[in-house]
């Protein structure tokens, strides 16, 4: 027993400081959280504090010293378990835990085995604060409590706690505007509001979306349906059915941005094959085409392509809503007699694909198990694209025809590593190794596409197929702006950043003969209607936000997942309106009329996903599936509306 008597709330103070420091040290040692400046470091340092003050502070309401101490130990243990679970999870998945992941553990096929490999005896250090607190309780003698002004002290304590919370939130808001309302990634949240607050926030967001599904009913779809019916462009007569009955091969060009197409690096073409293809008589190439993905990256692009819905603002819809009802392109083609498949040499549970593909009604998923990856066939994330293409085309020869298959490439993926023998051009010479290597992996991806074309021809599949290729999302993030500016020879403004979201989109129809560069401004949301119409399938009854890029009526309005948008004349980015031709800032009034519609589209799409609303829709007849009461209610509303109109007329 220590001789000296310590102030009354010593145990509480020791607990707060111990857990606080432990959390910060864990941030620095067990996660790779990117810190760009001193303010970010400061926010990271203080962010555990607000929650700890509150959680430990509850102990002030306990009368007996014993109960108080027990409670403090309980808080220390629970917070340690939360932190440590994240550490173990991060070792394997480089991500923080989010609720849906906990409920979908069976999707993480490898979770069980990887968990045991991610846990070590020495991890006991993550419980250092618990041990310290137990020691303090045993050895520190605190002054007996005086009943004096306990309530007033408590009040002061919680006012200070609240002040700390608001100080933290204020700094985060300054550092990362709209952190809690706009798109985000988990690292950014942990970095700004801290691990403990992040979990509370996550619980809030997830239970909100669960509640939305439970409370949702078919009548919510009425407004969305009306909006969509009013905005669907008619298919183009000329292109409708241009590829009817053919096999459909869709290739996802991993991380490929449009600047690589017809682009050079140190005098060498980056994508010689694809660049040549833009001039081909059987190819329609869209240079003004944008990705619209969010946190779900590749999986978001797949989601948009299959459904022509926007992905979610928070989290990957492949993870959060894989149980929903969808009306995918695969389902429609399947109903028209197509065999549908995805070919991707990665583990099937990545991005929860195995689950989601069931919901999208994809017949066959050829995952890593279906490929033979020999010596030297893998690099970076897995199987190299060239052997992948060779084996994929071989697999196609086994598929029942006509088939619709999607090939997901992998080599041109961050961090863009490549074996010496596969480097066909030099590295770039900027300060960013990422950008420097990107040119080489993009060049390799290009080569693999040529291999695919050759193989298709050799296997006799080429003539009777249509090949569609699109870039899934950016490869070079804004972290590399300086290097990118060096390459492009211009400063990367928010306008340029938005323009860098352009990804290639190719439609290649062997024998078509009228190939062209089509300057129509469009986005991934338009892929579904465009392809479906080429395949001769009507989409007039489908719930989809995109439009056929070949249609005369197609509207040039591309909404990014984060609310930025492009029109035929303007780019709205960073809350500034730019002229699309010059990139010069213009009057906000020019963008103003589009701000609401952009958000409306995103919100409608979000409500469909969160409410799982397509379960209330029959795409065969375009009818809503409504209950008796909903029908009655709608009928009443309609009558009231009619009466109102009559009154106005009189
Ligand atoms: C992984 C591949 C890459 O299977 O789709 O995913 P990304 O990181 O680009 O979303
Ligand atoms: Mn990707």
Model description:
The chain is of the alpha/beta class. The protein has two domains: about 5-210, no CATH class; about 225-340 and about 385-410 and about 430-630, Alkaline Phosphatase, subunit A (3-Layer(aba) Sandwich). Strands 9-8-12-3-13-14-6-15 form an eight-stranded mixed sheet. A hairpin with a 5-residue loop joins β17 and β18 (about 565). The longest helix is centred in the first third of the chain and has 29 residues, at about 65-95. The radius of gyration is 28 Å and the shape is globular. The N and C termini lie far apart (about 90 Å). About 40% of the residues are buried. The protein binds (2R)-2,3-dihydroxypropyl phosphate and manganese (II) ion (MN). Manganese (II) ion binds near residues 297, 298, 472 and 473.
């Amino acid at each position: 027993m220590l001789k000296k008597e310590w102030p009354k709330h010593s145990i509480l103070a020791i607990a707060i400081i111990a857990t606080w420091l432990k959390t910060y040290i864990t941030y620095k040692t067990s996660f790779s959280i990117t810190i760009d400046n001193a303010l970010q470091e400061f926010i990271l340092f203080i962010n555990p504090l607000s929650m700890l003050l509150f959680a430990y502070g509850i102990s002030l309401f306990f009368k007996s010293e014993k109960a108080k101490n027990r409670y403090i130990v309980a808080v220390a243990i629970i917070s340690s378990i939360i932190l440590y679970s994240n550490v173990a999870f991060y070792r394997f998945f480089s991500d923080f835990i989010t609720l849906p992941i906990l409920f979908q553990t069976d999707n993480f096929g490898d979770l069980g085995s990887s968990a045991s490999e991610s846990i070590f005896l020495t991890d006991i250090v993550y419980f250092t604060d618990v041990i310290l607190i137990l020691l303090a309780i045993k050895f520190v003698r605190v002054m007996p409590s005086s009943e004096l002004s306990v309530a007033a002290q408590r009040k002061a304590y919680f006012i200070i706690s609240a002040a700390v919370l608001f100080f933290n939130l204020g700094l985060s808001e300054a550092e990362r505007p709209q952190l809690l309302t706009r798109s985000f990634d988990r690292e950014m949240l942990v970095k700004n509001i801290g691990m403990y607050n992040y979990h509370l926030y996550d619980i809030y967001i997830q239970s909100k979306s669960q509640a939305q599904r439970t409370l949702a009913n078919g009548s919510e779809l009425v407004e969305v349906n009306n909006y969509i019916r009013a905005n669907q462009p008619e298919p183009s007569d000329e292109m409708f059915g241009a590829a009817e009955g053919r096999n459909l091969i869709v290739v996802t060009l991993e991380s490929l941005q449009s600047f690589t197409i017809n682009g050079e690096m140190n005098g060498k073409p980056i994508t010689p094959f694809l660049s040549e293809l833009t001039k081909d008589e059987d190819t329609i190439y869209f240079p003004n085409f944008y990705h619209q993905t969010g946190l779900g990256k590749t999986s978001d692009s797949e989601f948009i392509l299959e459904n022509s819905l926007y992905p979610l603002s928070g989290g990957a819809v492949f993870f959060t809503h894989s149980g929903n009802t969808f009306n995918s392109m695969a389902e429609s083609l399947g109903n028209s007699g197509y065999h549908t498949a995805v070919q991707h040499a990665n583990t099937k549970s990545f991005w929860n694909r195995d689950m989601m593909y069931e919901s999208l009604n994809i017949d066959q998923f050829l995952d890593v198990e279906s490929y033979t990856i020999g010596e030297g066939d893998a690099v970076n994330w897995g199987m190299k694209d060239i052997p992948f293409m060779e084996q994929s085309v071989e697999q196609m020869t086994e598929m029942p025809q006509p088939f619709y298959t999607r090939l997901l490439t992998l080599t041109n993926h961050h961090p863009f590593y490549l074996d010496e023998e596969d480097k066909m051009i030099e590295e770039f010479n900027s300060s960013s190794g990422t950008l420097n290597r990107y040119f080489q992996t993009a060049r390799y991806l290009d080569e693999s596409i040529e291999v695919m074309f050759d193989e298709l021809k050799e296997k006799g599949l080429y003539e009777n197929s249509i090949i569609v290729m699109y870039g899934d999302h950016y490869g070079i993030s804004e972290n590399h702006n300086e290097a990118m500016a060096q390459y492009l020879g211009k400063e990367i403004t928010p306008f340029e950043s938005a323009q860098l979201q352009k990804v290639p989109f190719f439609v290649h129809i062997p024998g078509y003969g009228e190939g062209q560069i089509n300057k129509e401004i469009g986005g991934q949301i338009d892929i579904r209607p465009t392809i479906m119409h080429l395949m001769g399938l009507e989409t007039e009854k489908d719930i989809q936000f995109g439009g056929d890029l070949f249609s005369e009526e197609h509207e040039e309005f591309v909404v990014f997942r984060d609310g930025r948008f492009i029109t035929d004349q303007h780019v709205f980015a960073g809350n500034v309106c730019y002229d699309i031709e010059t990139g010069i800032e213009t009057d906000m009034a020019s963008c103003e009329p589009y701000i609401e519609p952009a958000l409306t589209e995103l919100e409608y799409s979000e409500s469909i996903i969160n409410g799982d609303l397509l379960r209330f829709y029959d795409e065969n007849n375009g009818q809503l599936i409504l209950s008796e009461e909903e029908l009655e209610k709608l009928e009443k509303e309609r009558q009231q509306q009619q009466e109102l109109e009559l009154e106005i007329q009189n």
